[in-house]
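At this stage, I put together one protein's amino acid sequence and its C-alpha cells, which the following lines show:
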Amino acid sequence: MPAKTTHAQQRAITGGAGAKADVMSFMDPALAIPSLAAAGTGALIYRRYRRYLRARLARLKGASLVAQTHCGPIEYVEDGTGASVLIVHGAGGGFDQGMEFGGASLARRGFYVISSSRFGYLRTPMPKDASPAAQADAYAALLDALGIARSAILGVSAGAPSAMQFAIRHPHRCSALVLLVPFAFKPSEMARPAPRLSAFGVKFLLTIVRSNLNFWIAARLARAFVIKFVLGTPPAIIQAATRDERARAARILDGIMPIGRRIAGILNDARISSSLPRYELEHIKAPTLVLSVRDDLNGTFESAQYTASQVPHAKFVSYDTGGHIWVGHDNEVLAEIVSFLTP
C-alpha cells in the first residue's frame, strides 16, 4: 500500500484546509468510545470492531510460512509454478498485500510467486539495520533458503527502494526489475507539491495509524481522509469506479488491518522515504519496467519518470488517473507486467 505516516509530515505542514474539513466530522479518537457510548451505540460499535479484528487476525493465521535465514526470520507465502517473481509490498502491507498487488494474479498466469513480509511487518521482525540495502540482502537470503538462484522482483510503492537495491547489490540474482508507483529519488526541479496536511491533520493521521481501533473507526467515519492520505488516491476516483474496482480498493484498505502488527514497518518506511538518496541506477543491468500514475497523491509519477530515464533501456508506462492504487487500470497493469516478464 501502499501510504505513509510521518512522510506526510516531512513533506510540509502548510495549507490543508480541505484535509482538516475531511476529518472534522470525526471526533477526537480519545473521546470516540465514551461519546458513542453516551449516545447508546458505543457498545455495539465496539462489538462490531472486535468481530472485525478477529476476522482479520483469522485470515492471517496459518496463511504464511517463516524461513530461517542468515538475515533472520522472514515471513513469506508462495504460489504457482514457472519463472519466479518476488513481490515486495508497500507501506502498510505484508505478504498478504503483495498477493493482492498482483501476486495472486501472476501465480494464475504461469509464474512462481514469492511474497514476503518486509522488516517490521507481521511476523518478520525489525532488525537494527532495516535500510533498503539490508532489506535487499534479506531478499537474497530468502531466495537462498528457498533454493532459488535468480528471480524477477516487483517492488510496489515503499517496497521500490529495496527492490532497486536488490537489482544493484545482487545483479546476478535479479532476472528482471518491475517498479510499480515507486517511492524513489527525484531531482528537486522535478518536485511536485503533494497534498499538504495541517498540523491537526498530521496529528490525526499519526493517531489513527498507531491503533487498530482508531484506524478502524477512521476508515468508517473519516473515509475520504483515509483514502486520500493513506491510499494516496483521490476519493472521487474510487467513487466513480466500477463495482469491482471499488471492491478492490476496499480490500486494500481492509488489508492494512491489523495495523498494530505493521506499525514498526510503517514507521521505518516513513523514515526511509522522507529522505531518499539517488541510487546508482545506471548500474542496474536487469531489464526494467517502471509504472506510475499521474494523479498519484503520493507524488510517485515524477520519481518513476526520473528512475526510468536513468536505468539503461528501462520501459516507462504511465496512466493519467487512478491514484496510488491505480484504480481503473488493474487489468492493464497486470497485462503490462505479464508481457514484460514473459520471455
Q: What stands out?
A: The chain has a mean pLDDT of 89. The longest helix spans residues 42-60. The chain has one domain: 1-277+286-343. The beta strands are 65-69, 72-79, 83-88, 111-116, 151-156, 174-180, 288-293, 315-319.
